Amino acid sequence: MTAPPLLDAHLVADRGAFHLDVRLRIAAGEVVALLGPNGSGKTTALRILAGLHPLDAGHLTLDGVDLDRPERRTWTPPERRPVGVVFQDYLLFPHLTALDNVAFGPRRRGVDRRTARDRAQAWLDRVGLGGQARHKPRQLSGGQAQRVALARALAVEPTLLLLDEPLAALDARTRLDTRAELQRHLGDHPGATLLVTHDPLDALVLADRLVIVEYGRVVQEGDAATVTARPRTDYVARLVGLNLHRGRADGHTVTVGGLTLTAADRVHGDAFVAFPPAAVALHPTRPDGSPRNVWPASVAGVQRHGDNLRVQLDGPVAVTADVTPAAAAHLGLHTGQTVWAAVKAAETRAYPA
């Protein structure tokens, strides 16, 4: 028999014209990433879970206890929730040492001063900052401040750990090291963890499951392999680097607008068709031979993308193509130029919408 989730929440709230309606279920020991574009409701959801905004409807149940259920007029203030939070800017108390920052949470929950400081020292040792216990935030690097904030959140032994863009303020090198460190600590956390992020790499490395929100609603959820293989919105497709279109399928063909594409999969009815930019080949004239999907397109823009160039194409369908600088030079690519796009059927995936 499957154990009930540690977090069982239906978050319904209105913030002006914005309406949030999101269901979240997180098991003990599970890390869930909440992903979405700016304004999608990620931060609102996190603030509701932390007790900084009340629900207008729905419920928030943690380990079988209702923390917020408007229909029963139940609401638990932040300081009484078994929740730890790591904010994007860490929000360490500037006048307190690292030790006292970490001890603050246990002290607020009634732990005596000596026990709280002992617990704080143990957590600083665990995150590799035992020697910086007497340092104040201004004396810490960005990566060290992030680890103090994590230790402070975990020192209250939270049933639910909330992480709000925990790596966003770090430079690339520090982020790489801190991500690996964070992954280790999250693996040891026995409670539920919600990671709010816009960075797909953070989500893919740190989370067991992804929940994608747009316009205040869940549009897709699942493990990383499922979400990346079968995106269901343009945002998710861009996130994982795929061209995505919705059309009507009949067997191995999917009609999108005025273009019919042949796919490797057999589907009937409303369907998505997806293929990576690297699968799109560009030709100066209509190609002969193996490609099953060929159409004329107009170059709308060219940008550097890693070692290659990413070409935006308009036409029967708008797509992006990745080409090498040598190929771009050979084609003489420029905005407004007409080219032929080709994608092999074997590299085109279709699945039900």
Provide the fold topology.
Elements: E1 7-15, E2 18-26, E3 31-35, H1 42-50, E4 57-62, E5 65-69, E6 74-75, E7 83-86, H2 98-108, H3 113-126, H4 142-154, E8 160-164, H5 172-188, E9 192-197, H6 200-206, E10 209-214, E11 217-222, H7 224-229, H8 234-240, E12 243-256, E13 259-275, E14 281-283, E15 293-305, E16 308-314, E17 319-323, H9 325-331, E18 338-343, E19 349-352
Helix pairs in contact: 2-3, 2-4, 3-4, 4-5
* Unreliable residue runs: none
Strand segment count: 19
> What do the pLDDT scores average to?
92
CATH architectural category of the largest domain: 3-Layer(aba) Sandwich
* Helical coverage, percent range: 25-40%
**CATH level-1 class of the largest domain:** Alpha Beta
Give the full name of the CATH homologous superfamily of the largest domain: P-loop containing nucleotide triphosphate hydrolases
Which descriptor suits the 3D outline? Answer: elongated
Under CATH, the topology of the largest domain can be stated as Rossmann fold
- Rg estimate, integer Å: 25 Å
Largest sheet: number of strands, sense, barrel closure: 6 strands, mixed
> What's the helix count?
9
Domain ABC transporter: 4-240
GO cellular component, one term: membrane
Keywords: ATP-binding, Cell membrane, Ion transport, Iron, Iron transport, Membrane, Molybdenum, Nucleotide-binding, Transport
Protein name: Molybdate transport system ATP-binding protein
